[in-house]
Amino acid sequence: MPPSPSSSPPSLLARLASSASLASRLSISRLFSSSPPAMEPTEDSLRKALAGRQAAVDAQGNAVRALKAGKAPKPEIDAAIKALNDLKIEKADVEKRLQAAVSGGAGDGALTREAFRHAVVNTLERRLFYIPSFKIYRGVAGLYDYGPPGCAVKSNVLAYWRQHFVHEENMLEVDCPCVTPEIVLKASGHVDKFTDLMVKDEKTGTCYRADHLLKDFCNEKLQKDLSISAEKAAELKLVLATLDDLSADKLGAKIKEYGITAPDTKNPLSDPYPFNLMFQTSIGPSGMLPGYMRPETAQGIFVNFKDLYYYNGNKLPFAAAQIGQAFRNEISPRQGLLRVREFTLAEIEHFVDPEDKSHPKFSGVADLEFFMFPREQQMSGQSAIITQLGEAVSKGTVNNATLGYFIGRVYLFLTHLGIDKGRLRFRQHLANEMAHYAADCWDAEIECSYGWIECVGIADRSAFDLRAHTEKSGVALVAHEKLAEPREVEKLVIVPNKKELGLAFKGNQKMVVESLEAMGEEEAFQLKAALESKGEAEFLVCAMGKSVKIKDNMVNISKQKIRENQRVFTPSVIEPSFGIGRIIYCLFEHSFYTRPNKAGDEQFNVFRFPPLVAPIKCTVFPLIQKPEYESVAQLISRSLTVAGVSHKIDITGNTIGKRYARTDELGVPFAITVDSQVDVTIRERDSKDQVRVSVGEVASVVKEVIDGHRTWSDVWSSFPHHTSASAED
Ligand code: AMP
């Protein structure tokens, strides 16, 4: 299913989610991170209070009019007018608080979400983290380039993904083509079902994603129309919470009920209908072999299952992984890197015995506690709750321990990258949102200025994918388990007559044999009946792309009692699927803050990336332009290169304050300033603290902190402190 960012109102979890320590220092991130005081009124109670104040204002207004009509004494009328004005002031106050509550808890003077986003995106584009693709030709919606710092962040995130998942679990990494023949995506269901619901402007033909229009309508009403009742607000929130659950009919009915029209023209809209998101192509010059740009990387792994299983010593469980580009022709790409038409996916397919979904390393993550948002909570309009993962699995909220294990590992991955724990939740799919074959699905959603965004999908897809490819290809994608004791079972036995098949099909014999052997019981007995009545039958061999004529002497089909030494079964697959661009964008927002200069008249932008993510780990500056300082800087630069620390030397004559500000804006965690030939300073980005370290030692100290073998506070307590004589601000 093409995902859509989930739409629960942002203020719900923002209130629960608190990371007050940093937020209190950081004016912009306070908007998203801080918790209001414990007794702060809820949005719901504020809506009720506002309705009450409005009624009081109306009643007092009537009273004033009645007094005036009845020619009451002036002092009496004046007192009533004063009471009316007081009520209006009270109402305005409640209105203001409600406005703050619906726009994410922002207090007086705080920047709005849009202003915050504007500041982040402006910095990202100006410093070339990312750039709209083909910009000089006015670009194409939904296509972006990563510039130098963006590329570095992306490759750091991917390197950590490999370390945290592929290496940790000995996964088998593969790299498959993006161009995929139609038959593969027909088998997987993408050709028929990989659709989003679209509506058209009935007059201009402009296309819109139907659920996005409904979502925008509800959000706008909730945030901008303060006069709606608490009941109406609850209804709109429920629509938002269950948006992914709506069928085409229900979505169409809601659009009609709310009178939603085309946003640009206000023209009426068509009923919603499905639009396939795949980019179609044809492979080779003849145009005879249809294909698609892959919409996900998973299929490349499924079609290689047989070989990978063999590579793994015919043992389960095992996981395969792939990082690569995916292509989706989104109806209305928007929200920058969050909804694009080409993006990097990192996917894991963990193959497991369906009868044993325990995980040997689950105990290692069972004690983790984080926000979980189970189906029941969503349906009843409640919020996500802090839950212990072990408890969620033992109670059955999460279907099995392997799924739980990956949820825990995803949590560790995201928070280690720098995603704020308070703005991360795991949301369970609603019943209709989940594919019918799936056993359970959870999305890791991250809150940013656009609301809650699905960044990682973690699904137990049961045996669907391998079965689908077995059926279509005729190659049995199954696993075997040796039984301790042989057992007697009644089984379908298909015995192809290889001699006859060889004579009839020559070089294609193997494909026909494999297709015959892969038949399910129903298909096999239909073929048997046809062979018995007519002596021959048409039989589709998908791998050949056509039907062939099978005669009754070519295959023997029966049911026999046989003694079995092994169990043959189709493995289940548990699939964590990571949208790398979405994770990176959320990381940008969660890392961004501004701080004033000493005079307080200018704001500087900072990305507080952890060293792991930072595009450049360190800068080297001679304090002033002096040949002896420059040669020390070159010497340190060489040591950093040898140590494998990415860095940048800046020997421009800019003030040191300006140079710090420029690198803070790129999120560089450490700066080495050369102001002597013996000692230099290391400055830490967020605290701006500086220590003095010898020239010979400095590269290894930085390397240790970057690699996480030493903390900055350890460095701070081990080396002399430096008080900067040159005001950096
Ligand atoms: P899905 O296969 O639809 O569950 O998508 C897997 C992951 O890909 C999602 O969790 C998102 O993080 C990411 N993703 C899906 N569609 C897009 C898109 N149009 N642009 C960027 N990332 C996407």
TrEMBL record:
Complex and partners: Homodimer.
PROSITE patterns: AA_TRNA_LIGASE_II (PS50862), WHEP_TRS_1 (PS00762), WHEP_TRS_2 (PS51185)
Keywords, comma-separated and alphabetical: Aminoacyl-tRNA synthetase, ATP-binding, Cytoplasm, Ligase, Nucleotide-binding, Protein biosynthesis, Transferase
Residue ranges of domain Aminoacyl-transfer RNA synthetases class-II family profile in the record: 118-596
Catalytic reaction equation(s): tRNA(Gly) + glycine + ATP = glycyl-tRNA(Gly) + AMP + diphosphate
Record's signal peptide: none
Record's protein name: glycine--tRNA ligase
InterPro entries noted in UniProt: aa-tRNA-synt_IIb (IPR002314), aa-tRNA-synth_II (IPR006195), aa-tRNA-synth_II/BPL/LPL (IPR045864), Anticodon-bd (IPR004154), Anticodon-bd_dom_sf (IPR036621), Gly-tRNA_synthase/POLG2 (IPR027031), GlyRS-like_core (IPR033731), tRNA-synt_gly (IPR002315)
EC numbers for this chain: 6.1.1.14
Pfam families xref list: HGTP_anticodon, tRNA-synt_2b, WHEP-TRS
WHEP-TRS domain sequence ranges: 49-105
A GO term for molecular function: ATP binding
Family indicated by similarity: Belongs to the class-II aminoacyl-tRNA synthetase family.
One Gene Ontology cellular component: cytoplasm
Compartments it resides in: Cytoplasm
GO biological process, one term: translation
